[in-house]
Amino acid sequence: MRGRRYIYELIAVAGALLFFCSCQRHDIYVSPDGDDSADGTIENPYRTIAKAITEIRPGETIYLREGTYKPTAEEAMGGTLHGLYLCVYMLDASGSEFRPLTISGYEDEKVTIDLSGVVPENQRVSGFQLSGDYWRLRKFDIVGIQVTQTGHTQSENITLTGSNCIIERVNMHDGMGIGLYAKSGRGNLVLNCDAYNNYDPVSENGKGGNCDGFGFHLSDPQCTGNVIRGCRAWRNSDDGFDLINNLAEVEIDSCWSWQNGYDSNMTARADGSGFKMGGYGLRKMAVNPVPPMNVVKNSIAWENKNVGFYSNHHLGGIRFENNRSGRNNYNYNFVNQIAHNDNTDVGGYGHVIKNNVSYRGARGEYTMIDPSQCTVEGNTFLPDMALTDSSFVSVDPALLYSQRQKDGSLPDIDFLRLRQE
Question: What is the pLDDT of residues 14-62, one digit of tens each?
């Protein structure tokens, strides 16, 4: 009996040790000065992010050490959509709720991924093709993404089609592509990210019409639970935030959008809406979609080329709550399309418009609304309030550029905040 019991105890100990080892995180380290033939430890890091991605397992983190990573087209991980895109980094594995897959800058080190060397012939570029679930991307910048095609095309710093992912403190700027572009996926959070100075001078005669800061264009009504929070978009040549052709509700909370529709030199380019909150292109549609009630709240739009907050011919209501808008062409445009099979514009219907501030729109504070078909409460318009600079704690737009807090959250500013609030 003692022998058998001893064997059972050994088996139990071995099983416990095996479980313990399998649960240990083996974090992976990458450095621009590393070597892909190394072991990926902090002492001997890999050189390329692609190498680390092929090694990562659920529950592990790829830590990027300080410096600039500049992949080439030859180092790109693959293509997708019948070769339409060249994907620099393919994140097609999946983690789980308690064992996500993470790529993060290391501690407070400055990490930049420069995609300017990825110049494929006749392909779009996707910096991070994020099709897996439960990924976390944190604390790095992406710059320099390229466009090589001259027709109707686009490149994307992050292409999101997975679910339950968090993109946090990732800044996408000074390139030719969209910051973040989502076509599908559920339960994703885009948190405390910046997208700015993005302009495509190559395609469509340099119009720049496919360079939004953040775009959610969800193709399935089941793609619910997506949130953009604490993000900023400025001087993107098209729109700051764009939800056109979106079939599932997206919430935009505490985001700022200014001077979109211009390039980094403030030369006028494409559409230039701060928050484009829905719509389907003002066209006749054979099938009647169920339009989602997208939400934008606690947000700021300033000096965008077109509209600050825009319903964009939506086929239903949108929630506009606790927003501040100033010096846009129109600060608010609530226009709706009358029906899916009739592309006639009418005054906005079904909207919930509460506690919004409007100040000095170039053409007007608001336009295109049927108040009898909307919930309108507590705004500085409908009825209009007489506002001056002294009505606000601050009207200094330089505050929008203020440094983020240490945890990455937005700075606490009083720009366009009414004094009585």
Answer: 444 444 444 454 899 999 999 999 999 999 999 999 999 999 999 999 9
DSSP bridge partners of 189: 166, 227
Residues 89, 128 contacting (CB under 8 angstroms):
yes
E-strand ranges in 259-335 read: 275-276, 295-297, 300-302, 307-310, 319-321, 324-326, 330-333
C-alpha distances (whole Å) from 187 to each of 90, 168, 246, 293, 419 are: 20, 14, 15, 16, 37
Q: How far is CA 113 from the centre of its chain?
A: 17
Buried b / exposed e over 69-103, threshold 16 CB at 10 Å, is bbbebebbbebbeeeebbbbbbbebbbeeeebbbb
Contact 305, 338 (CB under 8 A): no
Amino acid at 223: C
Coil, helix or strand at residue 347: coil
> Cβ contacts of residue 10 below 8 Å, gap of 6+?
none
**Cβ neighbours, 10 Å, residue 352:** 15
- In 152-239 the beta strands, taken as DSSP E runs, fall at 156-160, 166-173, 178-182, 189-191, 194-196, 214-216, 226-229, 232-234
d(CA 40, CA 411): 36
* Integer Cα distance of 244 and 246 in angstroms: 5
Q: For the stretch 165-186, what's the b/e string if a residue is b when 16 or more beta carbons lie within 10 angstroms of its beta carbon? A: bbbbbbbbbbbbbbbbbbbbbb
The reported pTM is 0.94
Residues 6+ apart with CB under 8 A from 284: 340, 341, 342, 343
DSSP helix/strand/coil, 174: coil
Q: What is the pLDDT of residues 202-228, one digit of tens each?
A: 999 999 999 999 999 999 999 999 999
Topology at the third CATH level for domain 26-401:
Pectate Lyase C-like (2.160.20)
Q: What tens digit of pLDDT does each residue of 134-183 get?
A: 999 999 999 999 999 999 999 999 999 999 999 999 999 999 999 999 99
Per residue in 137-146, pLDDT (tens digit) is 999 999 999 9
